[in-house]
Amino acid sequence: TNRKLDAKLTVYFNQFSNVERTTWNSQLAEAQAYLKDHSVETPMLQIISTLRGLTLDEMVNKVIIKSNEYQTMVATLIAEKQILESKIQAANTNEELNNLLIDLNNY
Fold first, then answer.
1. In b/e form, how buried is each residue of 33-50, taking b as 16+ CB within 10 angstroms?
2. pTM to 2 decimals?
3. Do 42 and 23 contact (CB within 8 A), yes or no?
4. Pairing with 75, which of 3, 69, 85, 101 sits 20 to 30 Å away (CA)?
């Protein structure tokens, strides 16, 4: 299950460059700080929003939405993995394990 989980994350991560991914924490920190205090400096988000033709408010909202989507996806994958692990531990017969193999292949 770990390899399948990693593969699903890799598919998601491959949508973005390594450079972009390295900025996610900074972007989120700036967005969260800006939401608390609109006078805070947000150099990264300001540059990105300006070059993209967005307002800073629009950029902050995009960052928060994308972060929430990512956290939801990761939480869902982790929960699915833990559910399968619990089912494996609870299986008492070969038939139950074989049924779980089918589930695992569809995971």
1. ebeeeeeeebebbeebbe
2. 0.80
3. no
4. 101
